[in-house]
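Please decode residue identities from the backbone states below.
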């Protein structure tokens, strides 16, 4: 059994500022390699001796590689910021077209949609309004393709909030009787 306090995982190395290229180039082969017994993963766990990692971190080669990686990271951050701004602009510019249905047809579709999701029985007070907003929100799911190109933390949550807000505002504008439920959902998601 390996002593985890004397070994460092690849994730821990990344936390210390290492890139994958730096790990391969400066550390080379892992000191211990195998499967993680705690969780299944197709990739083997790679462990590096902490003493060896610290020794490499004191070398000029590491300092040069870290400065180059830092510049690359800044360029990647700038690119991610450009993508984030472009997606937010696209979300703001995109016209949201809500399907216009007669009240009875919207109710019928909302109840059918609820049953397709597996819900049974009568709903609580005001449930039909919630179901209608839920149905319309699902009908507008195609607008989520506007989020393509945003990965990880790079503005994704902000873009999702903006898109949801725009969708609920469009539903409220198309169906004023559903405006209170749309406002409630926007408030819950804040």
């Amino acid at each position: 059994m390996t002593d985890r306090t004397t070994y460092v995982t690849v994730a821990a190395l990344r936390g210390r500022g290492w890139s994958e290229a730096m790990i391969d180039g400066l550390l080379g082969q892992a000191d211990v390699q195998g499967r993680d017994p705690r969780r299944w993963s197709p990739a083997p766990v790679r462990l590096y001796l902490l003493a060896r990692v610290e020794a490499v971190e004191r070398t000029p080669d590491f300092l040069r590689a870290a400065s180059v990686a830092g510049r690359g990271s800044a360029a990647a951050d700038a690119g991610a910021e450009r993508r984030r701004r472009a997606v937010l602009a696209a979300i703001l510019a995109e016209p949201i077209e809500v399907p216009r249905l007669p009240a009875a047809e919207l109710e019928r579709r909302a109840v059918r949609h609820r049953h397709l999701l597996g819900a049974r029985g009568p709903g609580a007070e005001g449930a039909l309004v919630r179901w209608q907003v839920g149905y319309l929100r699902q009908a507008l799911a195609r607008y989520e393709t506007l989020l393509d190109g945003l990965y990880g933390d790079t503005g994704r949550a902000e873009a999702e909030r903006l898109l949801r807000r725009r969708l609920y505002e469009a539903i409220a504008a198309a169906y004023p009787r559903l405006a209170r439920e749309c406002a409630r959902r926007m408030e819950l998601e804040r």
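Observation: Residues 96-188 form one domain.
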